[in-house]
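Problem 12. The chain below contains 180 residues. Write out its predicted structure in C-alpha cell notation.
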Amino acid sequence: SLHLLLSQTFAKVMESTATIYKHSVEEDLHALCRVNPDGIITFAHSAMADLFGTAPLSGRPLAPSFAGEDRTFLIQAFQSAREKPTAREAQLKWIGSASKRLWLTVQPMILNGNLTGFYVTATDASLIVAREERFLDRLELPAIKLDQDSVITYANPATRLLIGADTDLRGRSVFEIFPN
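Solution.
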C-alpha cells in the first residue's frame, strides 16, 4: 500500500540522516585545557594552542585571553562553579592574533566533594556551522536556514532541486521563493 511505502521510505531517510549526523559529529574537533581553581592553565591540548596561536600554554591564566564581556563571563563561570559546581556554556570571542568566535564549555572537576579545577573545551564556531551545513547537504529532505529577517543563509541541494533553482539561494528572501 502507499502508506506502507511512504513509511518505509521515511524510515530509510531517517536512518540515513542519523548515520550522516553521527559521522558529522565525530568529525568535530574540540580544543581542551585543564585549569586549576585559580584559573591557571595546567594542561592544554595542542588544538587549544592552535586557537591561542601560541605555545606553551601551561602556567598561563586563561581569562586574560578573552576581552570585555567574554572575560567577565569566564571569571563568573569559574566563580559560580566554585560556589555550586555545574556546567556552564556560552559563545565567546577569542582575542589574539587569530580572532575567532568560539563555543566554550566550562566544566568543574570535583574530587571528594572539592573543586580541583575546570575542564574548558572550545570549538571554533565556524567549524560548527560548516559541520551543520555538511550534515544538511547530505539530507534527502529540503532544509533551509533563515536569518532574523527571513533571508536565506543556507539552502541544501534537496531544497534547490525541489524549487528548480540551479543557483545559490543565499541572500534571497524566503517570501520571494515561497510567496504564500
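Discussion. Confidence is low (pLDDT under 50) at residues 21-28. Students who got a different answer should revisit the alignment rule from Section 12.3.
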